[in-house]
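Record 1 of the preview.
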Amino acid sequence: LEEVGRRHPGTLAAEMRRTADELALGVPSLVAYASFARRSPARGVPALVAALIRAARHGTPLAGALAALAAEARANRARRAAERAAKAAPKIQLVVALLLVPSVLLLVAAALLPSLLG
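->
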């Protein structure tokens, strides 16, 4: 937590630094992690804190849990991007229907107008 908090800017990194400082001052890890979860409203923090608490309680390696959390976060991000892309398609179709089709029809009418009049 200390290293991530030191290397990155932002509120979440500051909260990680604060949690690392609490741990360095001797606050029990479960208490420090719980207060980190309360202070940080970011989406992935509860899962991160749960992994940290599991690792602290059971002495399990944290790397595997963090890799799984990162993979899940990437999958969620890709899913949200796909949802946004799916919502954009009807909007693009509306632009095509309302702007491009009438302008093409006007161009065709302008090209045909001389032959119809003369």
